[in-house]
Write a structure and sequence with these properties.
There is one protein chain. Helices cover 34% and strands 0% of the residues. The protein is an all-alpha fold and 65 residues long. The protein starts with 12 loop residues before the first helix and ends in a 16-residue tail after the last helix.
Length: 65
């Protein structure tokens, strides 16, 4: 919890399960998704928000070697 934050997020077991070491079978990276769909990163994120695309987050998200 962050002091002064205007909201709180309740972490259910289902939500916690989405934060795993790997996204799992059938998932691709954000960069691959933008190429495959021919849209921008923002458009992919909007589709995720609308529930049109399923997303997963992993600890390595956004990191490059």
């Amino acid at each position: 919890m962050t002091p002064g934050a205007p909201w709180r997020i309740r972490l259910t077991d289902e939500l916690k399960a989405r934060f795993t070491a790997s996204a799992g079978e059938g998932f691709i990276t954000m960069q691959e998704a933008t190429r495959a769909l021919g849209v921008t990163r923002q458009t992919v994120l909007q589709r995720v928000k609308r529930g049109e695309i399923q997303a997963a987050t992993s600890p390595r998200a956004g990191k490059s070697d």
